[in-house]
Amino acid sequence: MLKRVYLTIDDAPSAHLEKIVDFLSFYQIPAVFYVRGGFVEQYCSKVAYAISKGYLIGNHTYSHSCFSELSFEQCQHEILKTELLIDACYAMAGVIRPKKVVRLPFGDRGAGANARTAQNDTEQQHVMQIQKFLAAEGFEKLSFHHASEYIDAYWDWDTQDYKTRHIEDLTGYIKNMASFMENYHHESAVILLHTFDHNAHLFQPTLSFLMAQSIAFLPI
Fold first, then answer.
1. pLDDT-derived band of residue 111, with 50, 70 and 90 as boundaries?
2. Bridge partners, residue 27, by sequence
């Protein structure tokens, strides 16, 4: 039975980021925001606000492209361009960046969005080249991924709060969450939420549902 959750939020920042941060801060819920560089360019001050409230900012690449469809050089560029923007947000907030963490788009480590591990030698070479690059750039595993051989952060529970059927049907979305919990047989999980302008109305109901289940939110 699920009792503990690590909260991770992808595709930040959105226009609603400050409200999300205020909600989490009020309830003292820790979280990590994985930001897309293309969005940071528009909302750098909102990312700085999240930083000022003590939230960790992770790299979610610049354009959110599948790494299996990019060259190694393109993958490097996606990461490094976003790094410059994240560093600028930390400077704006006047906060020293505590650590560098990363989540690759779609969980695609270079072998495809539906594959956590490589299926052939070419894919394996691409995956490991990316992992070595992440290590060389100083990216770290978060505590809930220490047992993994990979540096990038994965998840256990994707709420799918980006899907149209959930965005348009809050009741069905909450039922879907309840169904997941009924069928999940571990005490802890890394939960994946998303923050877009068009799904912002799902955020507070999601957290309210989890809090009503007496879920403990673990520090990142």
1. confident
2. none
